[in-house]
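Dear support,

I submitted the protein below through the web form. The confirmation email said the job was done, but the results page showed an empty box. After a refresh the structure appeared. I'm attaching both so you can tell me whether what I see now is the final result or a partial one.
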Amino acid sequence: MIRKEYFGAYVYDYAMQMYLLFDKDSYDTFVKLRDNFSILSTIDGDIVQILRNEEFIKDDAVNYYIIDNGDYDNVMSAPMRMHFLYTNRCNLNCIHCFSSELSGAKELCFEDKVKILDEMNKIGMCEILIGGGEPFVRSDIFDFINECNKRNIIVKIFTNGLLFNDSNFEKILNADIAYIAVSVDGTNNEEYALTRGVDGLSIVKNNILKLKKAGCKYPILISTTINNYNQYNPIGFLEFTEECYADRLKIRATKPNGNILKDSSVMINPNDYLTFLGTIQKKYNEKYAEKFQMDLTWGDFRLYYDYESGTLNVLDADLPYTDYGCVAGKTAMCIGADGIGTPCGFLPDDMQGGTEENVIEKSILDVWHNGKSFILTRSLTGNKTCRECDLYDTCRGGCVARNSYYNHDVNGVDPWCIKQFFPLKIG
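What the results page shows now:
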């Protein structure tokens, strides 16, 4: 899928499940080839070879389709990905949950949820991240996954892993999805119960093992949110991931929203989280690197380990916008179970979408381009310190939600400033 953008083109590679960005000249070449394949002979041979190697050309024909949503200045024509809170209902009430405050809100009917998929397909959105609430409290989640598959939309599921039972196990096992991410926020029963309110760690472990032993086709991720209750045993998360034969361990830190606002002591501070990261990376290098993948994040940033320098670093990824602020409302969109679109579920209430930003009453594109909350996130002014920083192109000022919470100013300097904490030398 190639989608026209103000900078050229946004490309989704279905085989690799990757986003690629191309300039205007590249986009023009894609269009010309689509319209008249005979011009291939006039294109530089090295470029043709790249197009063949990457299978933009296959069996002497173009192997792509193009979507044009119109021309927009410094704004992506549509979101790159969709975070969809499939339901507000949940069998838990976790201390760090950002969505539990909405548990009593109205939810879309199934037909309206499918309408969202129709528009996503039309405007070139190729990936949906399904969370909640807990998706598996609803039996129609499997019908929804099938509807995604029909439209060639890549599905990623986020679950607490407690509801895999005899009635749905075969459906979960055979689901056509990219992966399941199971939230595991404790290395022992006590830690897990402190965060999630139930003694469920052994249930989750058994459910994962049951899927793995049954030969599930997709990767299983252990997704962990580090807080002040579970930060003290980083090695335990590596051991748990290995014991479950999981494919990947994903680590992130708490953010200030939802239940955390009731008890801020749950939230980890950057120095403690940095200690956690250093410890877990060192042990991973020593014992686990060949057994499973590990993704470490710092706010909205992916981290990577440089073996040559022995340091943990922030991944410098290309951002398809020039505005101040994180990706909220610039590349990503969240849709609540009630259909209300918002730039990010972690933003403070006064920056969230309102009823007038419902994607059933309006189109996704209308909400994306004209919704008040989206316009607001694209009009942040930032601050001089960030704008003059040599890491600004990578960081763009950091997490808007965190700035709002700590600084009481969305344009302030992120207290988790990457220049202050990275690179991190791993002992």
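Response: this is the final, complete result; the empty box was a page-load delay. The chain has a mean pLDDT of 93.
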